[in-house]
Amino acid sequence: MSFRLNDEQLMIQSMVREFAHKVVTETAAQRDRTKAFPADNLKKMADLGLLGMMVPLAYEGSDSDSVGYVLALSEIAYACASTAVVMSVHNSIVCESILNFGTEDQKQRYLKDLAMGACIGAFALTEPEAGSDPVNQQTTAVKDGDHYVINGTKRFITSGKNCGLVIVTAKTDPAARHKGISAFIVTKDNPGLRVGNIEEKMGLRASDTTDLHFDDCRVPATDRLGEEGEGFQIAMKGLDGGRIGIAAQSLGVAQAAFVAAVRYAEARDQFGQKIAKFQGLRWMIADMATEIAAARQLTLSAAAMKDRKENFTLQASMAKLFASEMVNRVTAKAVQIHGGYGFTKDYAVERYYRDARVFTIYEGTSEIQRIVIANNIFKSKFRQL
Ligand code: CAA
Q1: What is the CB neighbour count within 10 angstroms for residue 312?
Q2: Positions marked active-site
Q3: 3 state DSSP class of 141
Q4: Per-residue pLDDT tens for 292-315?
Q5: How far is the CA of 233 from the centre of ligand 1 (A)?
């Protein structure tokens, strides 16, 4: 099925493409070296409405659909994958979770600021001993009058240092497994919240990934997100949308690597002709193009299902699985086509290759996506693809 974009979606795509090429690309290589958080990019993106994309106008958002969001996020990822992951977590898991599960008061107090980019959102589910298996998390939240007291450590938190608020999950009833997990909105100025170790990473180096320590962190009960015991469902629903975001990021990085590889092949002479003339290389380019196109269809179709309010869990996992594996193959081929130069920092494909590596890991590894896909097939008797 080929995807026909409507006028509004095309407008978002061309607006963000122009912005990303003019503004975001410029500092991407330098940020990779210095690890400078892209605060200035994010400020400009907020002005363009890219930090509350699926948030209604009433809460200062852009009221875009998920297809428009995929297009915008891909364009940002094309320019700078570090900036894109901040945008992805902020929009997909943080804004959407508050939109879907927050009280009117929480939307007024938090969602508006998030959508305007006045503060960046983070999402804290993972722990040192609970990555793929978040039901096994050890962080606790104990009710104390009109507050909860949170204790525990979260790990690998995107924007942990630079966020203004974090949605954290914790066990309110440790015996009840996933039904005993609740979610809370914690602002960064809470004295019980401390930023711990900042990871030294292979890629996405300008996006900070940190530990967050909650030490007797007192949170008003009015900042519990959703009902007690609803935290795991909030996380899983958020991750469904988040996984479409990671697929979109994968598309952007793959497209950038593909364009770089084609341009290089057209410019580089060996054996008396452009290397683009060699069949071995042309077939690599053909495979790269085909895989990117396939991933795009899967991703847009998952986003369109979300927009139609259909159950899109299966399609989000398929898109995330295929697109994240695809971008690792595409960036590896792009490095190969560049030969020795692809192994140097003089060419952007070296960065694309490193940035792409985590896409098959975060927001659910490829192995977890296969579990979700298989579970949905067998549970729902889903057969017709
Ligand atoms: N939407 C809503 N509810 C869902 C759901 C979904 N997509 N998936 C599961 N649930 C519900 C189920 O209905 C079930 O609830 P009931 O018992 O009330 O019916 C409950 O959750 C438990 O479901 P499962 O039995 O399927 O749960 P499980 O323990 O077997 O785990 C899993 C399922 C798919 C493996 C899940 O644990 C998972 O996705 N793990 C990976 C976690 C992950 O992606 N971590 C990434 C961290 S975030 C990150 O990377 C952030 C960042 O900063 C970039």
Answers
A1: 23
A2: 363
A3: strand
A4: 999 999 999 999 999 999 999 999
A5: 7
